[in-house]
C-alpha cells in the first residue's frame, strides 16, 4: 500500500501559495484530481509524482515518504 501523501501535497502547495486551481493548471490536470490526491482518494502516477515534486521543489522520494 502507498503511504498517504495527501497532507504533504496540500502543505507543499500552500507553502508555495498556490490554489488547487493554479496547481492543477501547472500540472495539467483537473482541480478534482488535485483534491483527490490531497484527500488520499487517488495516488498520482509516476509522471504526475515527478511533476508535483518539481513544482514543490522536493524529490519524488521525499514526497512519498511517511511523515
Quick structural summary:
With 67 residues, the chain is mostly helical. It is built from five helices and no strands.
Commentary on this structure:
This protein starts with 5 loop residues before the first helix and ends with a helix. The radius of gyration is 10 Å and the shape is globular. Helices cover 61% and strands 0% of the residues. By secondary structure, the protein is mostly helical. The model has no long low-confidence stretch (mean pLDDT 91). The longest helix has 10 residues, at 6-15.
Quaternary structure: single chain
CA-based shape: globular
In percent terms, what proportion of residues is strand? under 5%
Largest sheet: none
- Report the order of strands and helices: HHHHH
Average pLDDT confidence is 91
Q: Can you tell me the residue ranges where pLDDT is under 50 for at least 5 consecutive residues? A: none
Q: What is the rounded distance between the termini?
A: 15 Å
Number of helices: 5
In total, how many beta strands?
Answer: 0
Overall SS class: mainly alpha
Q: How much is the radius of gyration in Å?
A: 10 Å
Q: How much helical structure, as a percent, in the residues?
A: 55-70%
